[in-house]
Design a protein that fits this description.
The chain contains 13 helices and 11 strands. The chain has 2 domains: 116 residues, Phosphorylase Kinase, domain 1; 242 residues, Aminoglycoside 3'-phosphotransferase, Chain: A, domain 2. A hairpin with a 7-residue loop joins β1 and β2. 42% of the residues are buried. By secondary structure, it is of the alpha+beta class. It is 45% helix and 14% strand. The structure holds adenosine-5'-diphosphate, 2-acetamido-2-deoxy-1-O-phosphono-alpha-D-glucopyranose and magnesium ion (MG). Adenosine-5'-diphosphate binds next to loops.
Length: 372
């Protein structure tokens, strides 16, 4: 429990009202520590809030990060109201600290933030119903559309080179060379897979550099569990986890969703025979994402969507492998070899996408024509 110290101090320093009834760890993210707080408010009953301790080793400029989140959520709020939506549920709402800041720094130097809880909605770690995956696609597409005119250059890069796959590859190369935890020998096969696919790392960066793909405001962590789905209507209502919103590529937002949500198994499934990229889920997501983007994607972006899926999956695999080689300092792990299991599922998915490549392209073509 050592890592959760300080949350009581944090609770006292945000503009919450009522009496705290309970506080418990929440969600299954790999990076921040999330807590669900329940308050008893006179006349209102029980009210829930989200409190998060930000991972300052990973997000080492938390003030800039919160400035991004305030700016983007304020902008989204305006767009949502223009469209007659409900800004209390369709975007994250930051709760300020007692001194009016969007974060609180505790006496140990940890950064905390708080959000209004989105009631009557859930996030899912795995696709339970294909319709939910479709809804997540529409939501992430709509996120692109709503932010299409936001001046991307004004956003801070919260993690520089976040989806620069070449840098990720170089980090893997260094980790293999250093082999600080003497693990490289046990993962020769995975290292060989990564090196045999090195070429993939440069594809999207190259297209960005040559301006064949435009730089956009992107979410960059489009896992299914970063969408809140309404419990009654089953509509995707809110995109959450905005830490990595920064300038990026739309095809990466598409791709990261596919690698996580279109897999037939969990990201950390140890039995690789269960892991495949499901073409029905891929098709459903493609349809929803293109619809959600509302014609804002260029022809080149549409053409490169399958590549986004393959590259994001490959990149995530090499990130997990690097972290394994470096002693698991980045992603939270819950068992020995957890990052290695995660790496293996990603590489298995890349292999499977290679087998299904023609089909993946046909599907994108089908919806590209309809979406334009
Ligand atoms: P991480 O970066 O660790 O993934 P998230 O911001 O995604 O953290 O939060 C973790 C989980 O907490 C989410 O998957 C979601 O279930 C829940 N959550 C986060 N924010 C809210 C919110 N405002 N309302 C309700 N649930 C939330
Ligand atoms: C992390 O925070 P979370 O769990 O939504 C990671 C993503 C990875 C993902 C793999 C800031 O996302 O980039 O794709 O794990 N976020 C960060 O599951 O590194
Ligand atoms: Mg998350």
């Amino acid at each position: 429990m050592g890592r959760f110290k300080g949350k009581e101090e944090a609770v006292e320093n945000f503009r919450f009202s009522g009496e705290l009834v309970s506080m418990s760890p929440y969600g299954s993210g790999h990076i921040n520590d999330t807590f669900l707080l329940v308050f008893e408010e006179p006349g209102k009953g029980q009210c829930r809030k989200i409190l998060q301790r930000m991972n300052k080793h990973i997000f080492n400029r938390p003030v800039d990060l919160m400035e991004n989140i305030m700016n983007v959520t304020t902008y989204l709020r305006e767009r949502i109201m223009e469209n007659g939506g409900d800004p209390e549920r369709e975007t994250l709402n930051v709760i300020l600290s007692l001194d009016g800041k969007p974060y609180y720094v505790d006496s140990k130097g940890e950064y905390w933030r708080a959000y209004q809880f989105i009631n009557g909605a859930s996030s899912y770690d795995k696709v339970e119903k294909p319709e939910d995956f479709y809804e997540s696609a529409v939501s992430f597409g709509k996120f692109q559309r709503l932010l299409a005119d936001y001046p991307a250059y004004t956003l801070h890069e919260t993690i520089p080179k976040f989806h620069d796959t070449i840098s990720r590859f170089e980090a893997l190369r260094r980790a293999v060379e250093k082999d600080a935890f003497a693990r490289a020998d046990s993962v020769r096969e995975e290292i060989a897979f990564a090196f045999a696919h090195e070429e993939l790392a440069g594809v999207l960066g190259g297209l960005l550099e040559s301006k064949a793909l435009p730089l956009r405001v992107t979410h960059n962590d489009t896992k299914l569990n970063n969408i809140m789905i309404d419990d009654v209507t089953r509509k995707g209502i809110c995109v959450i986890d905005l830490d990595t919103v920064m300038p990026g590529l739309a095809v990466n937002d598409f791709g990261d969703s596919i690698r996580f949500g279109a897999s037939t198994a969990a990201e950390d499934e140890a039995d690789l025979s269960k892991v495949q990229c499901d073409m029905e889920l891929y098709e459903i997501y493609t349809k929803g994402f293109i619809e959600g983007c509302g014609g804002r994607l260029t022809d080149k972006e549409l053409e490169m969507l399958p590549m986004g899926a393959k590259v994001m999956t490959f990149e995530c695999g090499i990130r997990f492998l690097t972290d394994y080689l470096e002693g698991d300092h980045y992603f939270k792990i819950h068992k020995e070899g957890h990052n290695l299991d995660r790496c293996r599922t990603q590489f298995k998915l890349v292999e499977d996408m290679e087998k299904k490549w023609d089909r993946m392209q046909e599907i994108v073509k089908k919806y590209s024509i309809a979406g334009h």
